[in-house]
């Protein structure tokens, strides 16, 4: 039986929420404090169930709706937007693509609908780094006599850790030929501990702390999707499109916020030597036009990627990964260009531009990096001719 849920939140609702997030963003950034109140407002508005299928009471939204939501929220608070994007992306993957028992899917989905329970994947480790580079995780699950599991390990860069209800943990089993995959872990389980290690240049309010697992007991079916390592090697088109369009939309949202602040500054700033607003200078108009061109390009790319994916025609992984790099670099260039127009004012902590600069640079660290994406695209081209 499906659960009743209000219609998906309109853009006007998301814009109103984002404006409230913007008013608190500087404080959360300065303190590196997790924006619990922002998440609560997204929960109340039903945004955290946006990509839950309708059969479980969700909105049934696709990549286009998720990207739009992430971009609008990022205009107010980039850290909140990243937590939201991870929620929507992992919902789509866990509920749609992983080899998970139906009852387990239903539980996670209905938790999101009823209480806005947050879900994210925890993959990166101190020694392993990103799993995208290969190698077996040190986080391990051991089969118990009763058929259940015990989990031990440590994850870093665990976005949203203080607010998570469910964690999808990348781990290996203790077999002679280990299988690797995602293990579903309740965040409140005994033996789960957050180490508040996150102190970053940008995205400071994401709560991306270390999470330690010490002899965590799990039911048999919570080892959601274990496979031989080779089966995880090939890039997956759906995941690549979600990554490219979602991150592209989020970092474009940051760039729009930077553009809007700069446009206001140029209209309001009247140097005594000029006697008119800076916005009247052709040079300022030209450079802000460059920003507009970059953002317009990103909007078209995100819309195309998302529409093709939602229509069942996802981009090839090499193409999507290359476009992720283009989208992020366009957003960074847009923010840097906008900041140059305001000079020292852009670097003052009294203004939000310096936060936008720091936040947008974090786009480069999401996998795949530009180097990895370009190598893959070049290799695919050379091997096809």
TrEMBL record:
Domain Acyl-CoA dehydrogenase/oxidase N-terminal residue range list: 21-87
The keyword Transferase is assigned to this record: no
Gene3D superfamilies in UniProt: Acyl-CoA dehydrogenase/oxidase, N-terminal domain, Butyryl-CoA Dehydrogenase, subunit A, domain 2, Butyryl-CoA Dehydrogenase, subunit A, domain 3
Top-rank lineage group of the source organism: Bacteria
SUPFAM superfamilies on file: Acyl-CoA dehydrogenase C-terminal domain-like, Acyl-CoA dehydrogenase NM domain-like
Domain Acyl-CoA dehydrogenase C-terminal: 246-367
Alphabetized Pfam families for the sequence: Acyl-CoA_dh_2, Acyl-CoA_dh_M, Acyl-CoA_dh_N
Xref: InterPro entries: Acyl-CoA_DH_C, Acyl-CoA_Oxase/DH_mid-dom, Acyl-CoA_Oxase/DH_mid-dom_sf, AcylCo_DH-like_C, AcylCoA_DH/ox_N, AcylCoA_DH/ox_N_sf, AcylCoA_DH/oxidase_NM_dom_sf, Mito_Isobutyryl-CoADH
Keywords linked to the UniProt accession: Flavoprotein, Oxidoreductase
Domain Acyl-CoA oxidase/dehydrogenase middle: 126-216
Protein name listed in UniProt: Acyl-CoA/acyl-ACP dehydrogenase
